Amino acid sequence: MKWKLRKCPKCGTYTLKDVCPICSTPTIIPHPPRFSPEDKYVKYRIENKKGIKLNC
User: Which residue range(s) make up the domain with 25?
Assistant: First the structure.
């Protein structure tokens, strides 16, 4: 399933377009990734989110 709702990171406007109609900034998908207990990349997402380097 592909998410259709998108959000502008600059002005916070929600839209269905790939580019914000107000400020012409590329939009992002505001939904978090789906959870899976067999996720192979969880340590990399935590590392990216927290800004720390894990030695796993």
Answer: 1-31
47 found inside a domain? no
pLDDT tens column, 44-56: 878 887 876 656 5
Question: What is the three-class DSSP state of 14?
Answer: strand
Which tokens sit at 2? 């592909």
Tell me the CA distances in angstroms from 44 to 30, 52, 56, one per residue in order: 19, 10, 10
Q: Is 46 helix (H, G, I), strand (E, B) or coil?
A: helix
- pLDDT digits over 8-27, tens only? 999 999 999 999 999 999 99
Distance from C-alpha of 19 to C-alpha of 26, rounded to nearest angstrom = 4
Round to whole Å and give the CA distance between 21 and 3: 18
| Number of domains forming the structure of the chain | 1
